[in-house]
Amino acid sequence: GELKVSQRLGNAFTFEVRDTGLGIPAEQQALVFAPFHQTEAGSKKGGTGLGLAISSRQVELLGGNMQLESQVGKGTRFYFSLLLPPAQNAPAVLAKALPAVVTLASGQSLHALVVDDVEENRDVLARMLREIGAQVQTAGNGKEALTLLQLQYFDAVFLDIRMPVMDGVQALHHIRQQFADKRPVCIAITASALLHEKEAYLVEGFDDFIGKPFLFESIDACLQQPLGLGFTREEQAEVNIVIPEMAKIRVDKAWRTRLLSALEKGWINGIEAALDELEQQGVSHLAEQLRQKLNLYDLAGIAQDIEKIEDKNEPDIPSQ
Predict the structure, then answer these.
(1) Of 95, 129, 98, 77, which is closest to residue 291 (Cα–Cα)?
(2) What secondary structure letter does DSSP report for 94?
(3) What DSSP string describes 142-210?
């Protein structure tokens, strides 16, 4: 794939993404931006059919209109234009209040099972639960989850709706049958936050649901009432985050490629490993800045910072 940004007259910018993939048949192009629509070839690769619908809506909110050109067997080009005002110079030091640290109240515990066929989703949710003090295990589908539930008790089970082998709804029905006396709280994981779907999950027997991307507030809310859990919230002091001058930083090209790949996949462990490696290379100020954004799950912000940094093997270009 290729991402290209070009400036036209004034403050008009055109963004385009090209790929050399399967392409989209002409008769299906009009439906591409509809929620939950997937081509037959695309559905075999997984996903929910929401990515383009969400992207298109975001572009519309910014005043643009996403369009496409595609040839079957050759690839697709998505593109849109936006009027963007010039950015103001950022201060060298930014005073920023860090988000509050939320943890389980003293004396309370939480054993949680996260079930999702996408490893990156499991890692993100498991990490967020561990940060509030929970003990967490993971499974890749409903069948694996039932095996773990037979071995030990969990207070809460987070079940992705769409999974191979056994999906979330099927797993819920088995849990209700097998663990009727002491059933764990069952929370649906879904890419959709539509009200009528939430009501459908509750009718199926789920105690609650959380949408993607995951938010701490949603996780806390769906755990507090059914489990009677209490949380403590500790406000952190305001800190001064020194923003390094990106143009003076050089990074290894292979390292940049590894980090951008981990960001694209949403692989939190891979991002952390890359930042550890950056710190070992002596660029601790940049590693710390990027960790602050990782703690906020601002993966897009990390990618933007990395794009401003040059490779070590790239020569300086004299200013005109």
Answers:
(1) 98
(2) E
(3) HHHHHHHHHHS--SEEEEESS-SSS-HHHHHHHHHHHTSTTPPEEEEEES---HHHHHHHHHHT-SEEE
> Mean pLDDT in the chain?
80
Name the pTM for this structure.
0.51
Q: Which candidate, 171, 166, 158, places its Cα nearest to that of 115?
A: 158
In this prediction, residue 180 has a pLDDT band, given cuts at 50, 70 and 90, of: confident
> In angstroms, how far is CA 195 from the centroid of its own chain?
21
Contact 178, 148 (CB under 8 A): no
Tens of pLDDT, residue by residue over 160-177, are 998 999 999 999 999 999
CA distance linking residue 218 with residue 192, whole number of Å = 14
Is residue 119 within 8 A of residue 163, CB to CB? The reply is no
Instruction: Determine the Cα–Cα distance for residues 293 and 29; give it in Å rounded to an integer.
Output: 36
- Per-residue H/E/C for 96-127: EECCCEEEECCCCCCEEEEECCCHHHHHHHHH
User: How distant is the alpha carbon of residue 274 from its chain centre?
Assistant: 18
Please give the C-alpha separations between residue 203 and each of 6, 193, 196, 200, in angstroms, as whole numbers: 49, 16, 11, 5
For 93-102, 185-194, 253-262, which range has the lowest pLDDT when averaged over its residues?
A: 93-102
Taking residues 23-52, report their average pLDDT.
72
Residue 181: pLDDT band with limits 50, 70, 90 = confident
The three-state secondary structure class of 287 is helix
Measured CA to CA in angstroms, residue 233 lies from 104, 217, 227 at distances of 9, 12, 18
Q: What is the pLDDT of residues 64-78, one digit of tens each?
A: 899 999 988 888 999
